Amino acid sequence: MIGRAKQRNPQAIVVSVGCSSQANPSVYKDLGVDIVMGTTERNQLVNHIESFEKQPIVHVATDIRGDETFESTTISTDSDRTRAFLKIQDGCDNFCTYCIIPHVRGKSRSRDFEDVMSQATQFAENGYKEIVVAGIHVASYGKDLQDRNLIDVLSAITRLEGIERVRLSSVEPNVITPEFCEFVAKTPKFCDHLHLSLQSGSNGILKLMNRKYTTDDYYRAVEQIRTVRPKINITTDVIAGFPTEEESDHSQTKQFLQTIRLSKIHVFPFSAKMGTGAAGMAGQIPKSVKKQRCKELLEISDRQENAYYQSFVGKVMSVLVEETTKDGFFLGKTTNYMPVAFTADKSDLANQIVAVKLNSVDKNRLVGILQ
Ligand code: SF4
Q1: pTM for this entry
Q2: Is the CB of 169 under 6 A from ligand 1?
Q3: What pLDDT, in 10s, does the model give residues 136-192?
Q4: Pairing mode, if any, of strands 57-59 and 35-37?
Q5: Which of 96, 104, 140 to mutate to test the pocket of ligand 1 (most atoms within 8 A of CB)?
Q6: How far apart are CA 180 and CA 193, in angstroms?
Q7: Which pLDDT tens digit goes with each residue over 20-72?
Q8: Where does a domain end: 285, 310, 335?
Q9: Which of 81, 214, 269, 370 sits a CA distance of 20 to 30 A from 124?
Q10: Which atom of ligand 1 is nearest to the CA of 102?
Q11: In this structure, what CATH number is given to the domain that contains residue 351?
């Protein structure tokens, strides 16, 4: 892509930014990138572009784990017109053995609470109705601050005028504490959706992954949240073919997923990231086996997603409208993150929350009509 970008736009300055160029700056420089930046000091990007002449610029921190500041980049609108992503935390201290993030994004650090709220207020003033609270490991929010935690952030955002929905990006089971459930129970604006990473249904593999929970912990967390939100949409990530994963581990994962009935499983074949613990482990799994395991997990996902969506047919739900298709459908999401296509006798409903009667399931979405 870099080659193509340069070929098509010979006058352009090509920049690479993020985890991959943090991990391998020389690779990007050798590919002909003009400005190579990593995961810190990205607010210098404009300066670098303005001062660029001919010599490549490599601006990548070498001691990434020594960085303890949250780099705040304020934006007033998001590329998504209806859902604003609010980053409150960066970095991670967990060192899951398959993950490169702690090596390229540094220590976990929280965004200052006042700064979080100023950004959230700006989103609300710009007309956003939904905020997605995001971070690399959001559950760590507040561990390096005094007197603030994730629940404080979520509650403060739900109190902002104009904000109708607050959603959490990916979390792990340990975020589901009695306090969290209490907050969810009394906060209707908190969306009925959690993306709760599982990664494997085998305790042996979870241990090798250095995940900090067992399948029992995960099961308990799901049961707890379902006591306050029985129909909550819980989606997850699973890695297929982690080193040493036996057929019996894979069967345990399938069994666990069938018992716990999540509504969508994002399945990834294990891919070794240079520099991580898992990359050097013995017992790497052949590609064909990973492929077959992914296929089986995706079949479970499709069945469970369909069953979950079917359970809403006939109901009226609120939908935040995102766009209109050429063939006259409005597209949007319910609070529990189900995609909905519906018809209405209107010309524009973008960024409005409307009531839609859900009539059927068509592939991976619900189809309905405006009420
Ligand atoms: S998978 Fe998540 S928790 Fe684990 S090291 Fe990566 S970012 Fe941290």
Answers
A1: 0.90
A2: no
A3: 999 999 999 989 999 999 999 999 999 999 999 999 999 999 999 999 999 999 999
A4: parallel
A5: 96
A6: 14
A7: 888 889 999 999 999 999 888 888 899 999 998 888 899 888 888 777 788 77
A8: 310
A9: 370
A10: 5
A11: 2.40.50.140
